[in-house]
Amino acid sequence: MKIVRYENNPIITPMDVTPHREDFEVIGAFNAGVIEYEGETLLLLRVAERPINHDDTTIKAPILNEQTKELEIIELSLDDTRYDFTDPRTIRHAGEDKSSFCYLTSLSYIRIARSSDGKHFSVDPEPFIYPTDKLETFGIEDPRVTLIEGTYYIYFSAISPVGVGESLVSTTDFKQITHHGMIFAPENKDVLLFPEKINGKYYALHRPVPKSTGKPEMWIAESDNLLYWGNHRHLIGLRPGMWDSGRIGGGAVPFKTDKGWLELYHGASTDNRYCMGALLLDLYDPSKVIARSTVPILEPEEDYEVEGFFGDVVFSCGVIVKGDVVRMYYGVADTSMACAELSLNEILHSLEYDKEMVMSK
Fold it and tell me: How far apart are CA 251 and CA 37, in angstroms?
């Protein structure tokens, strides 16, 4: 498959973002929601900032005080044997399950980057959405945005000591926002809203993270009002020995083709190498899978995709489709944003189709 990575990749890096606080540094500008608005391409960046630390024997962790709405800084000694500091993103209690943590080493929020050509971006000087709620005390991450009937719905992972869930806000002008609360309770991530009703229902993809039985796999749910979701169904699972054997989740907002709804999703192997693949769902019943990638459509190869805060990661964020050209924006190495163009027809032809589904259509 022909992949045209932009020459100016990465298109946004932490160096392009001024810290919200003078005593913080930006370590990530990535995993942005993507939308077109009033002739511009908007990237709703996840900006990750951490406290500046000049003492290499300690580590700092920011946390929002839910009463005062101010950030507090926790400082711990790296010699403190009660904690596990091996993952640069988290601080864990020693000996606990690797899926749990007690602090994050950075705090994320959402800032808007704007472009008239889709390639060169300027980043707004102030945050667009900043943590304010008790369910956001560790930050808000990985926003996605869907336009439905004139309203832009923005949903993101809300992180707090009680877990990671998905919250929803909406806007019509990217200035004023309305908060709707948490729509998928912990532990859940990678929510994507379809851009229109299907047979009178709204649909969403989501990725629960089971703690007893089950694995981090993709599910689908439906709603009458975008706020309350039910009829949850398992959509696709992990594939042992393949590129998506460790975890999977939605990436870009699904978009309509004449073959079905096309979803560009992320998959990680058991050694945490993140690639992107495609999933084709039935136009009239998106709980039915028509086809799926057997090999990635994009994988980490370039230096900026391999090296970074958390390397070997390409993470689909959003697409803008013009005819056969799929302009795909993606996060790289949990650090920056990049963009590549692919052929829609080539993506569709690369998939392995379910013979029973094809024959029934």
Answer: 20
